[in-house]
Task: structure prediction
Amino acid sequence: METIKLTIDNKPVEVPAGTSVYQAAKNLGIDIPVLCYMNLHDLGIENKPAGCRICVVEVEGRRNLAPSCSTTCANGMVVKTHTTRVINARRTVMELILSDHPKDCLTCPKSGSCDLQNMAVKMGVRNIPGQAYAEMSTYKTDFSPSIIRDMDKCIMCRRCETMCNDFQTVGALSGVNRGFMAVVAPAFEQDLEKSPCTYCGQCVAVCPTGALTEVDHTPKVIRALADPTKTVLVQTAPAVRAALGEEFGLEPGTSVTGKMVAALRQIGFDYIFDTDFAADLTIMEEGTELLTRLGKHLSGDKTVKLPILTSCCPGWVGFFEHNYPDMLDVPSTAKSPQQMFGAIAKSYFAEKLGKKREELVVVSVMPCLAKKYECQRDEFKVDGNPDVDFSISTRELAHLIKEFNIGFNELADEDFDRPLGESTGASVIFGATGGVIEAATRTAYELHTGKTLEKVDFMELRGMDGIRSATIDFNGLPINIGIAHGLGNARKLLDQVRAGKTNYHAIEIMACPGGCIGGGGQPLHHGDTSVLKARTKAIYSEDTNKKIRKSHENPYIIKLYEEFLGKPMSHKAHELLHTHYFDKSSKDIFI
Amino acid sequence: MSHIKVELKQEQITKLKEICKSFDNEAGELINVLHKTQETFGYLPAEVQEVIARELNVSVAKVYGVVTFYSFFTMIPKGKHPISICTGTACYVRGAEKVLDEFKRILDVKVGETSPDGKFSLSCLRCVGACGLAPVVSVGDKIYGRVSPDGVKDILKEYE
Result:
């Protein structure tokens, strides 16, 4: 491999050809400040539009300062990263960016975790020359069910565009207009609701400012908690416990299940339940559906479609509704765990409490922004009353805990309430890519073969590669499994399925990188993908530590079927736990 | 942005598809496709952009991004007589802005707009290379030099 020798800040360095000055400096331990630049190495995503010019450096022999993120190293190059000329230029750049940026930091939802704010602190900006007469570009704020676009705060770093177009291949966003009115927006500057947006929230996860934020449901949750006529239930998704601690300064990968439950109890929720319980239920329904479809397929029934696709992820559901309307009968009809929980809470559990569904408020804590949209979908309501009333993200829960002045790190572990808080190891791994299909495999194997599965860990289904496949031996019957995470990878896999080029029996798809642990509602990882790996590890060790690791062995799930549902895919189960999908492709057309 | 709904006729859609096909439906040819389309249709309404996006397999947002980035492309139909006022340096210092204001006042349109009767559209451009004639105005292919605000109504009269 060809290498390049250069000098940065008087230190010699040797790097592979093609390396950027920014990266070469980093190798030397020199951290050049960046704003628009983003490198998610493990996901193969690099955003370097060289738009912000914060990372400029002096290169000997060059008249102008060079943006280090997009300047390639050359032999003999002499680079200076912090001369007075560089420092002055950076501050001026910062002042110019801030001159067209709102100054409502005190109440901005991104305050405290804003890259722009941090950079202003770092640059020592104390005033903005000319602010008194500087004009500001301003845009209409766009409120979607999940995401708020306040483009007055957009600095045109275009990270969101990279995630939406290159990684997710959703194509909802693009840089539009030029000069002062330039902004990132959907086609024809329409609202997100009229775009092919799936609300996966990856744009929000990488936005360095308050331009893209989630719709905050916490005020509504507090109002419900304060209402004496309401019984408020909370359910927490698997991936939340593996990341919430980061908001309180704990190391990524610290599992905080017990503390989270204790905090929710202190906040005043009447019942602390677990989405994991509903994940076990999902496996019962989805696993049975897989075996039913498989059985019919093997007996030569040509009307049965395979592969079966998982349907837990609302971002993914939105994606196929927009892009694969010809394949709406392929995904499992099983509702997502969030919605299964809501449906059971407001029927089975409401009956147990002797209350009407209207008296219950179901709150979900999710690593996800699409869940906000999912719980508002009309098909998940009974007479206008939603199965899940409000969905808050991991970040919003952290805010709530801070607002309630709870010393999170000092909390003693507590346990979930019963019956909807009992779960197995199979359900907790729903939070990581490959987890749902592994959980389904554990149950489907035993139901199909009638044998006990000795080794429940399917290492071949785990990992971070965008598209994976494995064949699992069901006692002589080879079952081909596909896995994709990230919607761009999902598109690749789905295009192959559509073209009839694959022989998968089942496919798991998650919209976000790494699965739910990398969801759009999780603590911001600021481009550090090692955080995702640490969270994944935490998820799998939760599984290992569980006594019961197969969904169909969850005693409260068994009881639920005995007392209420009958058996998987029964009439009642269909009514409560299954759904159907819609063709949303026509919504993409601007008319 | 405000938008007048346009219903594309089947033959227009066919024509659009032909244009895309002539560039092998290559996403990289987007700008050329847009040029050819504007040449054919006169402007690029949203419905046209959607067809192009589908044919080239790029997002509609991306097509709209390109259309709004380049000032040559327009989503508003040009008038029968497109008026351009040069606001390059030479024309500007010799009073182009006052001439422009007079056009705006008489036609009651802003820059980039078309008069309701579809007769005139107003735009600015930078330097036509005839600085000796500043300020310069063009209507269609015809060039007018040393235009004064008083002369504006006489120019418009020629097209009544």
Q: What stands out?
A: Chain A touches chain B at residues 165, 171-178, 185-189, 195-196, 588-591 (CB under 8 Å). The longest strand of chain A covers residues 477-485. Chain A is about 35% helix and 15% strand. The CA atoms of residues 154 and 211 of chain A lie 5 Å apart.
